[in-house]
Amino acid sequence: MSLNVSPELLEVAKAGPVSDEEFLACVRDSLPYAWKVVDQLVSDLGTTGNGHAVDRTNPPSDKDQGELLRLMASSPMRQAVERHYGIKLEFQNCCSTGAFRPEAVGGAAHQEFISARAQLLNQSPELLNC
Description:
- It holds the Pfam family KH_NucS_shadow.
- The chain is mainly alpha-helical.
- The chain has one domain (about 5-125).
- Helix content is about 55%, strand content about 10%.
- The chain has seven helices and three strands, in the order H-H-H-E-H-H-E-E-H-H.
- It has helices at about 5-15, 20-30, 30-50, 60-75, 75-85, 110-115, 115-120; strands at about 50-55, 90-95, 95-100.
- A three-stranded antiparallel sheet has the order 1-3-2.
């Protein structure tokens, strides 16, 4: 299961729309490693000065890798996190996650990160199951 949904939040969802705050709390609590990666990327954005930050850390465990994959593969989760932080998340694999300020989207660094070339160069035998 991707998220640990409390019975209370499930009832809210059954009754109608769920606020970003409620949803993000569930994501943060369910996927702490993935949340930490994104949080660190956002922090790094404040120090890079170039409109983007990239994390190339290999997740320490299969569980952590799974969290990051679930967050990045889920449109509702990823979009809620992007709205929360005011960023665009991009993902090559579990060892290469990028955060881009809105003004950097479409720029040279963003275009390179999302290119087929970058995806191919980011491969190695050690990452076969990544």
